[in-house]
Write a structure and sequence with these properties.
The chain is an alpha+beta fold. The chain has an eight-stranded mixed sheet with strand order 1-5-6-11-10-9-7-8. It has a five-stranded mixed sheet with strand order 13-12-14-15-16. It contains 18 helices and 16 strands. The two termini are about 55 Å apart. It folds into two domains: about 350 residues, BirA Bifunctional Protein, domain 2; about 90 residues, Rossmann fold (3-Layer(aba) Sandwich), CATH 3.40.50.800. Pfam families: HGTP_anticodon, tRNA-synt_His. One of its GO terms (molecular function) is histidine-tRNA ligase activity. It comes from Maribacter litoralis. Its main location: cytoplasm.
Length: about 450
Amino acid sequence: MAQKPSIPKGTRDFNPSEIAKRNYIFDIIKKNFQTYGFQPIETPSFENSDTLLGKYGEEGDRLIFKILNSGDFIRKVDEATYADKNSATIAPRITEKALRYDLTVPFARYVVMHQNDIDFPFKRYQIQPVWRADRPQKGRFREFFQCDADVVGSDSLLQEVELIQLYDAVFSELKLEGATIKMNNRKILAGIAEVIGAKDLLIDFTVALDKLDKIGEDGVKKEMLAKGISEEAIEKASPLFLPQGSNEEQLERLDALLKNSEEGKKGLEELRFILETIAVLGLQSANLSIDVTLARGLNYYTGAIFEVAAPEGVKMGSIGGGGRYDDLTGIFGLKNVSGVGISFGLDRIYLVLEDLGLFPEAIDQSLQVLCVNFGDKEAMAALKLVSQLRKSGVKADIYPSSAKMQKQMKYANNRNVPYVVLIGEQELDNNSFVVKNMKEGTQEKYSLNKVLDFVNYLS
Protein backbone atom coordinates (compact mmCIF):
# COMPACT_ATOMS: atom_id res chain seq x y z
CA MET A 1 0.00 0.00 0.00
CA ALA A 2 1.33 3.44 -0.97
CA GLN A 3 2.26 5.68 1.93
CA LYS A 4 -0.21 8.52 2.52
CA PRO A 5 1.64 11.80 1.83
CA SER A 6 1.89 14.49 4.51
CA ILE A 7 3.84 17.64 5.34
CA PRO A 8 5.59 18.58 8.61
CA LYS A 9 3.47 20.27 11.28
CA GLY A 10 3.67 24.03 11.13
CA THR A 11 4.19 24.11 7.35
CA ARG A 12 1.65 24.62 4.57
CA ASP A 13 0.92 24.15 0.91
CA PHE A 14 -0.52 27.22 -0.85
CA ASN A 15 -3.11 27.05 -3.62
CA PRO A 16 -3.23 29.59 -6.49
CA SER A 17 -5.82 31.77 -4.73
CA GLU A 18 -3.73 31.93 -1.55
CA ILE A 19 -0.59 32.75 -3.54
CA ALA A 20 -2.43 35.61 -5.26
CA LYS A 21 -3.49 37.03 -1.88
CA ARG A 22 -0.01 36.65 -0.40
CA ASN A 23 1.52 38.36 -3.44
CA TYR A 24 -0.96 41.22 -3.00
CA ILE A 25 0.45 41.80 0.52
CA PHE A 26 4.05 41.30 -0.63
CA ASP A 27 3.63 43.81 -3.45
CA ILE A 28 2.21 46.54 -1.19
CA ILE A 29 4.91 46.02 1.44
CA LYS A 30 7.69 45.95 -1.16
CA LYS A 31 6.37 49.06 -2.92
CA ASN A 32 6.36 51.01 0.34
CA PHE A 33 9.81 49.73 1.29
CA GLN A 34 11.11 51.12 -1.99
CA THR A 35 9.15 54.39 -1.61
CA TYR A 36 10.92 54.94 1.71
CA GLY A 37 14.32 54.39 0.11
CA PHE A 38 15.11 50.86 1.30
CA GLN A 39 17.24 48.56 -0.91
CA PRO A 40 16.77 44.78 -1.24
CA ILE A 41 19.21 42.10 -0.13
CA GLU A 42 18.94 38.33 0.36
CA THR A 43 20.86 35.97 2.64
CA PRO A 44 21.11 32.14 2.68
CA SER A 45 18.33 30.02 4.20
CA PHE A 46 20.84 28.56 6.64
CA GLU A 47 23.75 30.08 8.51
CA ASN A 48 26.65 28.76 10.53
CA SER A 49 25.26 27.81 13.94
CA ASP A 50 27.59 30.15 15.81
CA THR A 51 26.15 33.05 13.79
CA LEU A 52 22.70 32.42 15.26
CA LEU A 53 23.17 30.80 18.67
CA GLY A 54 23.34 33.13 21.66
CA LYS A 55 21.70 36.06 19.84
CA TYR A 56 18.04 35.47 20.79
CA GLY A 57 18.20 34.55 24.45
CA GLU A 58 17.70 31.13 25.99
CA GLU A 59 14.13 30.72 24.69
CA GLY A 60 15.07 31.75 21.16
CA ASP A 61 18.03 29.36 21.03
CA ARG A 62 15.73 26.43 21.82
CA LEU A 63 13.60 27.26 18.77
CA ILE A 64 16.44 27.21 16.24
CA PHE A 65 16.28 24.32 13.74
CA LYS A 66 19.74 22.73 13.58
CA ILE A 67 20.96 20.91 10.45
CA LEU A 68 22.81 17.61 10.89
CA ASN A 69 26.26 17.49 9.31
CA SER A 70 26.50 15.46 6.13
CA GLY A 71 28.20 12.07 6.12
CA ASP A 72 28.67 9.77 9.11
CA PHE A 73 28.43 12.61 11.62
CA ILE A 74 27.96 10.36 14.67
CA ARG A 75 31.52 8.95 14.35
CA LYS A 76 32.88 12.35 15.38
CA VAL A 77 31.31 12.00 18.83
CA ASP A 78 33.59 10.31 21.35
CA GLU A 79 32.23 7.43 23.45
CA ALA A 80 32.11 9.40 26.71
CA THR A 81 30.14 12.30 25.21
CA TYR A 82 27.80 9.91 23.41
CA ALA A 83 27.19 7.84 26.56
CA ASP A 84 26.35 11.01 28.52
CA LYS A 85 23.34 11.58 26.21
CA ASN A 86 23.50 15.35 26.81
CA SER A 87 22.17 17.16 23.73
CA ALA A 88 23.99 20.37 24.66
CA THR A 89 27.40 18.68 24.39
CA ILE A 90 26.54 16.36 21.49
CA ALA A 91 24.95 19.04 19.25
CA PRO A 92 28.16 21.01 18.48
CA ARG A 93 29.79 17.75 17.30
CA ILE A 94 27.05 16.75 14.87
CA THR A 95 25.65 20.06 13.62
CA GLU A 96 27.48 23.16 12.40
CA LYS A 97 24.66 24.90 10.53
CA ALA A 98 21.10 26.01 11.32
CA LEU A 99 18.06 27.42 9.53
CA ARG A 100 17.77 31.15 10.07
CA TYR A 101 15.51 32.14 12.99
CA ASP A 102 14.95 35.69 11.78
CA LEU A 103 16.37 38.14 9.23
CA THR A 104 18.00 40.61 11.64
CA VAL A 105 20.99 38.60 12.85
CA PRO A 106 21.84 37.40 9.31
CA PHE A 107 21.56 41.06 8.25
CA ALA A 108 24.07 42.06 10.94
CA ARG A 109 26.41 39.35 9.67
CA TYR A 110 25.89 40.64 6.10
CA VAL A 111 26.73 44.22 7.12
CA VAL A 112 29.99 43.15 8.76
CA MET A 113 31.06 41.00 5.80
CA HIS A 114 30.19 43.68 3.21
CA GLN A 115 30.99 46.83 5.22
CA ASN A 116 33.45 48.13 2.62
CA ASP A 117 30.80 47.97 -0.12
CA ILE A 118 27.99 49.62 1.86
CA ASP A 119 27.08 53.31 1.99
CA PHE A 120 26.06 54.18 5.54
CA PRO A 121 23.42 54.76 6.72
CA PHE A 122 22.37 51.58 4.92
CA LYS A 123 18.63 51.08 4.46
CA ARG A 124 17.81 47.52 3.47
CA TYR A 125 14.67 45.47 3.09
CA GLN A 126 14.48 41.69 3.00
CA ILE A 127 11.53 39.42 2.27
CA GLN A 128 12.40 35.76 2.89
CA PRO A 129 11.22 32.73 4.89
CA VAL A 130 12.46 31.93 8.41
CA TRP A 131 12.07 28.81 10.55
CA ARG A 132 11.29 28.31 14.23
CA ALA A 133 10.76 25.06 16.12
CA ASP A 134 7.70 26.53 17.82
CA ARG A 135 4.45 24.80 18.78
CA PRO A 136 2.12 25.34 15.79
CA GLN A 137 -1.19 27.13 16.41
CA LYS A 138 -3.39 29.67 14.66
CA GLY A 139 -1.16 32.40 13.25
CA ARG A 140 2.02 30.65 14.46
CA PHE A 141 3.94 28.48 12.00
CA ARG A 142 7.30 26.75 11.88
CA GLU A 143 8.02 28.10 8.42
CA PHE A 144 6.90 31.61 7.61
CA PHE A 145 7.93 34.75 5.74
CA GLN A 146 9.29 37.87 7.36
CA CYS A 147 9.29 41.24 5.65
CA ASP A 148 11.97 43.38 7.29
CA ALA A 149 13.16 46.95 6.88
CA ASP A 150 16.27 48.09 8.78
CA VAL A 151 18.57 51.09 8.90
CA VAL A 152 22.15 50.68 10.17
CA GLY A 153 24.76 53.37 10.65
CA SER A 154 22.57 56.04 12.23
CA ASP A 155 21.45 56.61 15.82
CA SER A 156 18.99 59.36 14.85
CA LEU A 157 15.52 58.93 16.34
CA LEU A 158 14.13 60.18 13.03
CA GLN A 159 14.64 56.60 11.84
CA GLU A 160 12.16 55.35 14.47
CA VAL A 161 9.72 58.04 13.36
CA GLU A 162 10.09 56.96 9.73
CA LEU A 163 9.53 53.29 10.55
CA ILE A 164 6.30 54.14 12.36
CA GLN A 165 5.21 56.07 9.27
CA LEU A 166 6.16 53.05 7.13
CA TYR A 167 3.95 50.77 9.23
CA ASP A 168 1.11 53.26 8.89
CA ALA A 169 1.57 53.58 5.12
CA VAL A 170 1.46 49.82 4.54
CA PHE A 171 -1.56 49.19 6.78
CA SER A 172 -3.40 52.12 5.24
CA GLU A 173 -2.84 50.80 1.70
CA LEU A 174 -4.00 47.35 2.83
CA LYS A 175 -7.10 49.13 4.22
CA LEU A 176 -6.28 47.59 7.60
CA GLU A 177 -7.47 50.59 9.59
CA GLY A 178 -7.17 50.75 13.36
CA ALA A 179 -3.96 48.74 13.79
CA THR A 180 -2.14 49.76 16.98
CA ILE A 181 1.62 50.32 16.97
CA LYS A 182 2.66 49.66 20.56
CA MET A 183 5.94 51.22 21.65
CA ASN A 184 8.29 51.01 24.62
CA ASN A 185 12.02 51.45 25.24
CA ARG A 186 14.49 48.92 26.65
CA LYS A 187 16.22 51.73 28.54
CA ILE A 188 12.95 52.31 30.39
CA LEU A 189 12.76 48.61 31.28
CA ALA A 190 16.41 48.67 32.37
CA GLY A 191 15.64 51.75 34.49
CA ILE A 192 12.67 50.01 36.12
CA ALA A 193 14.80 46.93 36.87
CA GLU A 194 17.37 49.28 38.43
CA VAL A 195 14.98 51.20 40.68
CA ILE A 196 13.25 48.03 41.95
CA GLY A 197 16.62 46.39 42.73
CA ALA A 198 16.59 43.75 39.97
CA LYS A 199 19.25 45.23 37.68
CA ASP A 200 21.20 41.98 37.45
CA LEU A 201 18.05 40.11 36.44
CA LEU A 202 17.01 42.45 33.60
CA ILE A 203 16.59 39.67 31.00
CA ASP A 204 14.52 37.49 33.33
CA PHE A 205 12.46 40.53 34.33
CA THR A 206 11.72 41.60 30.73
CA VAL A 207 11.04 38.07 29.43
CA ALA A 208 8.45 37.53 32.17
CA LEU A 209 6.92 41.00 31.75
CA ASP A 210 6.53 40.43 28.01
CA LYS A 211 4.12 37.58 28.79
CA LEU A 212 1.63 39.74 30.71
CA ASP A 213 -1.05 39.60 28.01
CA LYS A 214 -0.65 35.79 27.74
CA ILE A 215 -0.36 34.55 31.32
CA GLY A 216 -1.76 37.51 33.28
CA GLU A 217 -0.43 39.38 36.31
CA ASP A 218 -0.33 36.32 38.60
CA GLY A 219 1.51 34.27 36.00
CA VAL A 220 4.11 37.01 35.46
CA LYS A 221 4.70 37.44 39.21
CA LYS A 222 5.05 33.68 39.65
CA GLU A 223 7.63 33.50 36.85
CA MET A 224 9.56 36.46 38.25
CA LEU A 225 9.71 34.82 41.67
CA ALA A 226 10.92 31.58 40.08
CA LYS A 227 13.71 33.54 38.36
CA GLY A 228 14.92 34.97 41.67
CA ILE A 229 13.26 38.39 41.60
CA SER A 230 12.20 39.28 45.14
CA GLU A 231 8.63 39.98 46.26
CA GLU A 232 9.75 43.47 47.32
CA ALA A 233 11.06 44.19 43.80
CA ILE A 234 7.86 42.88 42.22
CA GLU A 235 5.83 45.09 44.54
CA LYS A 236 7.85 48.15 43.46
CA ALA A 237 7.10 47.23 39.84
CA SER A 238 3.35 47.02 40.56
CA PRO A 239 2.52 50.24 38.59
CA LEU A 240 3.36 48.23 35.45
CA PHE A 241 0.40 45.95 36.10
CA LEU A 242 -2.11 48.82 36.33
CA PRO A 243 -4.43 49.69 33.40
CA GLN A 244 -2.34 51.44 30.78
CA GLY A 245 -4.20 54.74 30.39
CA SER A 246 -3.39 57.41 27.79
CA ASN A 247 0.12 58.04 26.50
CA GLU A 248 0.36 61.19 28.60
CA GLU A 249 -0.79 59.39 31.76
CA GLN A 250 1.80 56.68 31.21
CA LEU A 251 4.56 59.23 30.67
CA GLU A 252 3.65 60.88 33.97
CA ARG A 253 3.65 57.52 35.77
CA LEU A 254 7.04 56.63 34.27
CA ASP A 255 8.43 60.07 35.19
CA ALA A 256 7.69 59.33 38.84
CA LEU A 257 8.91 55.73 38.73
CA LEU A 258 12.20 56.52 36.95
CA LYS A 259 13.21 59.75 38.68
CA ASN A 260 16.30 58.06 40.21
CA SER A 261 17.47 56.24 37.07
CA GLU A 262 19.53 58.09 34.47
CA GLU A 263 19.16 55.27 31.94
CA GLY A 264 15.41 55.12 32.50
CA LYS A 265 15.09 58.89 32.04
CA LYS A 266 17.08 58.67 28.80
CA GLY A 267 14.65 56.06 27.47
CA LEU A 268 11.73 58.22 28.52
CA GLU A 269 13.22 61.20 26.69
CA GLU A 270 13.57 59.12 23.49
CA LEU A 271 10.01 57.88 23.80
CA ARG A 272 8.67 61.41 24.27
CA PHE A 273 10.56 62.73 21.21
CA ILE A 274 9.08 60.03 18.96
CA LEU A 275 5.56 60.61 20.25
CA GLU A 276 5.80 64.39 19.85
CA THR A 277 7.24 64.14 16.32
CA ILE A 278 4.53 61.72 15.19
CA ALA A 279 1.91 64.01 16.75
CA VAL A 280 3.15 66.81 14.46
CA LEU A 281 3.35 64.65 11.33
CA GLY A 282 0.17 62.65 11.94
CA LEU A 283 -0.74 59.09 10.95
CA GLN A 284 -3.21 57.99 8.28
CA SER A 285 -4.98 55.09 9.99
CA ALA A 286 -2.80 53.48 12.67
CA ASN A 287 -2.75 54.28 16.39
CA LEU A 288 0.50 54.84 18.32
CA SER A 289 0.39 53.77 21.95
CA ILE A 290 2.88 53.38 24.80
CA ASP A 291 2.90 49.89 26.33
CA VAL A 292 5.23 49.72 29.35
CA THR A 293 4.85 45.93 29.54
CA LEU A 294 6.17 45.49 26.01
CA ALA A 295 9.59 43.89 26.26
CA ARG A 296 10.05 41.70 23.15
CA GLY A 297 12.30 39.12 24.75
CA LEU A 298 15.18 39.40 22.28
CA ASN A 299 18.53 40.20 23.82
CA TYR A 300 19.76 42.54 21.12
CA TYR A 301 17.24 45.39 21.53
CA THR A 302 18.68 48.43 23.33
CA GLY A 303 16.31 51.34 22.64
CA ALA A 304 12.84 51.73 21.15
CA ILE A 305 10.83 48.53 20.75
CA PHE A 306 7.70 48.10 18.65
CA GLU A 307 4.90 45.61 18.37
CA VAL A 308 1.82 45.93 16.17
CA ALA A 309 -1.60 44.67 17.23
CA ALA A 310 -4.43 43.96 14.78
CA PRO A 311 -7.51 46.21 14.86
CA GLU A 312 -9.70 45.82 17.94
CA GLY A 313 -11.98 42.81 17.80
CA VAL A 314 -9.62 40.62 15.77
CA LYS A 315 -8.17 37.76 17.81
CA MET A 316 -4.61 37.55 16.59
CA GLY A 317 -1.11 37.84 18.03
CA SER A 318 1.20 40.63 16.95
CA ILE A 319 1.32 41.32 13.20
CA GLY A 320 4.62 43.18 13.31
CA GLY A 321 7.45 44.17 15.60
CA GLY A 322 10.96 45.52 15.84
CA GLY A 323 13.25 47.89 17.65
CA ARG A 324 16.58 49.65 18.07
CA TYR A 325 19.82 47.67 18.51
CA ASP A 326 22.84 49.82 19.26
CA ASP A 327 25.62 47.31 18.67
CA LEU A 328 24.29 44.14 17.04
CA THR A 329 27.16 44.10 14.53
CA GLY A 330 29.57 44.23 17.48
CA ILE A 331 29.07 40.51 18.03
CA PHE A 332 30.67 40.00 14.62
CA GLY A 333 33.54 42.44 15.22
CA LEU A 334 32.15 45.73 13.86
CA LYS A 335 31.68 48.01 16.87
CA ASN A 336 29.50 51.08 17.37
CA VAL A 337 27.15 50.63 14.42
CA SER A 338 23.65 51.45 15.60
CA GLY A 339 20.62 50.09 13.84
CA VAL A 340 16.84 50.00 14.02
CA GLY A 341 14.33 47.89 12.15
CA ILE A 342 10.80 46.57 11.90
CA SER A 343 9.20 43.41 10.56
CA PHE A 344 5.79 42.69 9.04
CA GLY A 345 4.22 39.33 9.93
CA LEU A 346 2.93 38.35 6.51
CA ASP A 347 1.06 35.21 7.55
CA ARG A 348 -0.82 36.90 10.39
CA ILE A 349 -1.58 39.95 8.25
CA TYR A 350 -3.04 37.51 5.69
CA LEU A 351 -5.32 35.94 8.32
CA VAL A 352 -6.46 39.36 9.55
CA LEU A 353 -7.29 40.57 6.03
CA GLU A 354 -9.15 37.31 5.42
CA ASP A 355 -11.14 37.63 8.68
CA LEU A 356 -12.09 41.22 7.88
CA GLY A 357 -12.85 40.58 4.18
CA LEU A 358 -10.29 43.17 3.04
CA PHE A 359 -8.84 41.39 0.01
CA PRO A 360 -9.95 42.91 -3.33
CA GLU A 361 -12.83 40.99 -4.89
CA ALA A 362 -11.03 39.91 -8.06
CA ILE A 363 -7.63 39.26 -6.48
CA ASP A 364 -7.55 35.53 -7.28
CA GLN A 365 -8.73 36.00 -10.84
CA SER A 366 -5.90 34.21 -12.63
CA LEU A 367 -7.59 34.21 -16.03
CA GLN A 368 -9.63 36.99 -17.65
CA VAL A 369 -10.59 35.28 -20.89
CA LEU A 370 -11.06 31.63 -21.86
CA CYS A 371 -11.65 30.62 -25.48
CA VAL A 372 -13.90 27.61 -25.99
CA ASN A 373 -12.40 24.91 -28.24
CA PHE A 374 -14.87 23.79 -30.97
CA GLY A 375 -12.35 21.84 -33.10
CA ASP A 376 -9.09 22.16 -35.04
CA LYS A 377 -10.08 24.95 -37.43
CA GLU A 378 -11.88 27.02 -34.77
CA ALA A 379 -9.05 26.42 -32.26
CA MET A 380 -6.51 27.91 -34.69
CA ALA A 381 -8.53 31.14 -34.91
CA ALA A 382 -8.91 31.13 -31.11
CA LEU A 383 -5.15 30.68 -30.68
CA LYS A 384 -4.49 33.70 -32.89
CA LEU A 385 -6.95 35.74 -30.80
CA VAL A 386 -5.37 34.53 -27.54
CA SER A 387 -1.93 35.58 -28.83
CA GLN A 388 -3.20 39.09 -29.59
CA LEU A 389 -4.87 39.37 -26.19
CA ARG A 390 -1.73 38.23 -24.36
CA LYS A 391 0.39 40.81 -26.22
CA SER A 392 -2.03 43.44 -24.94
CA GLY A 393 -1.52 42.24 -21.36
CA VAL A 394 -4.79 40.29 -21.06
CA LYS A 395 -4.63 37.00 -19.16
CA ALA A 396 -6.10 34.69 -21.80
CA ASP A 397 -6.13 30.98 -22.62
CA ILE A 398 -7.84 28.37 -24.79
CA TYR A 399 -9.31 25.11 -23.55
CA PRO A 400 -6.84 22.47 -24.82
CA SER A 401 -9.32 20.02 -26.35
CA SER A 402 -12.71 20.12 -28.06
CA ALA A 403 -14.51 18.62 -25.07
CA LYS A 404 -18.24 18.96 -24.46
CA MET A 405 -19.38 22.56 -24.02
CA GLN A 406 -20.70 21.75 -20.53
CA LYS A 407 -17.24 20.58 -19.40
CA GLN A 408 -15.51 23.66 -20.80
CA MET A 409 -18.00 26.06 -19.21
CA LYS A 410 -17.67 24.26 -15.87
CA TYR A 411 -13.91 24.73 -16.11
CA ALA A 412 -14.44 28.46 -16.76
CA ASN A 413 -16.72 28.73 -13.73
CA ASN A 414 -14.28 26.86 -11.48
CA ARG A 415 -11.47 29.18 -12.59
CA ASN A 416 -13.67 32.21 -11.92
CA VAL A 417 -13.18 33.42 -15.52
CA PRO A 418 -15.27 36.55 -16.16
CA TYR A 419 -15.35 36.31 -20.00
CA VAL A 420 -15.67 33.25 -22.26
CA VAL A 421 -14.98 33.64 -26.01
CA LEU A 422 -16.86 31.60 -28.58
CA ILE A 423 -15.51 31.12 -32.12
CA GLY A 424 -17.61 28.54 -33.93
CA GLU A 425 -18.28 27.93 -37.64
CA GLN A 426 -20.63 30.89 -37.92
CA GLU A 427 -18.11 33.24 -36.27
CA LEU A 428 -15.36 32.00 -38.60
CA ASP A 429 -17.57 32.76 -41.59
CA ASN A 430 -18.27 36.24 -40.23
CA ASN A 431 -14.64 36.85 -39.08
CA SER A 432 -15.93 37.58 -35.59
CA PHE A 433 -15.96 36.26 -32.03
CA VAL A 434 -18.63 36.27 -29.33
CA VAL A 435 -17.85 37.26 -25.75
CA LYS A 436 -20.03 35.85 -22.99
CA ASN A 437 -20.07 37.84 -19.75
CA MET A 438 -20.21 35.04 -17.16
CA LYS A 439 -21.43 37.23 -14.34
CA GLU A 440 -24.25 39.01 -16.18
CA GLY A 441 -25.06 36.28 -18.69
CA THR A 442 -24.95 38.74 -21.63
CA GLN A 443 -23.18 38.29 -24.98
CA GLU A 444 -21.39 40.76 -27.26
CA LYS A 445 -19.99 40.26 -30.77
CA TYR A 446 -16.62 41.70 -31.90
CA SER A 447 -14.72 41.66 -35.19
CA LEU A 448 -11.50 39.62 -35.32
CA ASN A 449 -10.01 42.60 -37.18
CA LYS A 450 -10.74 44.89 -34.23
CA VAL A 451 -9.53 42.94 -31.21
CA LEU A 452 -8.45 46.19 -29.55
CA ASP A 453 -12.12 47.13 -29.15
CA PHE A 454 -12.48 44.15 -26.79
CA VAL A 455 -9.17 44.94 -25.05
CA ASN A 456 -10.34 48.52 -24.43
CA TYR A 457 -13.59 47.18 -23.02
CA LEU A 458 -11.66 44.98 -20.57
CA SER A 459 -9.55 47.88 -19.39
